Every structure is written in C-alpha cells, then in structure tokens.
C-alpha cells in the first residue's frame, strides 16, 4: 500500500493451496471457482509470471471435481480474471492458459450449469479498464479518459485515493467496469435463469454492490 505498512508474505502460499485442494477433494466439490489474483503482479517485473502460474496450476490440477463443465475452466477449476492476471498476461494468453474466454462466445463473460437447477454466471469486471487492453486500443483510450474525468489523482501520479470519499474511491486503475454490453447480457441471463427455475450464482473479481464493500474495491459501473 502507499504507506508501505502492508507486506507480501507468500512463502507458505503453495503449501496452503495444496491443503485447500486436499480439503476440496474430501468434500467432493462440483467445481472450484478461482476468483482472480491467482499470482501476484510482481512476478511480471522479475520475469517469473509463467513459472508462478505453472506452480499454482500444478497444485490445482489435483482437484477431483464432479461436474462436467463442457470446456469451461481447466480441469474442474473455473478461472476469473483479476487485475493481477492482467498485470502478468494479455487476454489471449489468459484465454489459452486459463480458458477465460470459452466457446462459443469467446468472451470473458459466460454461463454454465454445474448441476440441475443451478446457473453460474461468470463476469469480467475489466471489459472497461485501463489494464488488459493495448494502450492504442479504443477501449484503453476510452477507459483512461473516463477514469481521469472521475479521479483527478490519476494525472498527478500520486496516491490514487487521496481526497476521495465513499463510493468515489472505486475510480482507481485496479478496478474496472463491466460495460453496457456485458450488463445487458447479465440481465438477459438472469431473466432466462428465472424463467427456467434455476438459482443463479454470479461470480466477479470486483465487487458489484456498494453495500458489499468499503467503496474502494468496487466496479466503476
């Protein structure tokens, strides 16, 4: 953090992941949702992104899940996109390594049914974002303009949250937006689930609702 009072201490992380996998296997989970930030963004600076991800995926490959996910996820683990995924890899690499954009839509928001009566909706809160898109892309340029208009600290390069209060603290570069197209898809998917009598489980790396967070880690829209 900006005060440098928080430290990254990951020495036991892989061992903890292995213990978690063993626990999930005992519980006979239908699937496992990996909600993003599987590895730290610092790996990109040291050229260790691929090695770190491979180590985590090796542990997750031991998951013994029961649902047939039909091309969704990797070996029973459904991977969401977090900001640290985007610090380490571009979207094409994430799709290849983590199946974050499955067929048929080839986009990072989609749904699947792990069991009768259940519909899981996977969202990408970085469809509108300053990370994950090339600087020269229209999406990247539009996101930078939007964020700068909402947060005067962006241009200064200082503490992004200085002077921001409440929900306004969500306008920082490590958050993003779902975008109109994805929100329309979500609304339609929820309506279909209701019509089909399914319970819907919505997964997102970034918090959707103000009452579920302190305002600083919430989607722009």
How much strand content do the residues show? Answer: 5-15%
Q: What is the helical fraction, as a range of percent? A: 25-40%
Provide the gyration radius in Å.
18 Å
Distance between the termini: 24 Å
Give the SSE string.
HEHHEHHEEHHHE
Sketch the major β-sheet: 3 strands, mixed
The helix-and-strand class reads mainly alpha
User: What is the average of the pLDDT values?
Assistant: 93
Number of helices in the DSSP assignment: 8
- Which residues form runs of ≥5 with pLDDT under 50? none
Q: Strand order of the main beta sheet, please?
A: 3-4-5
- The shape is globular
Give a count of the beta strands, DSSP E runs of length 2 or more. Answer: 5
Describe this structure in words.
By secondary structure, the chain is mainly alpha-helical. The strands form two sheets. It has a three-stranded mixed β-sheet with strand order 3-4-5, covered by helices on one side. Strands 1-2 form a two-stranded parallel ribbon. The protein starts with 12 loop residues before the first helix and ends in an 18-residue tail after the last strand. The model has no long low-confidence stretch (mean pLDDT 93).
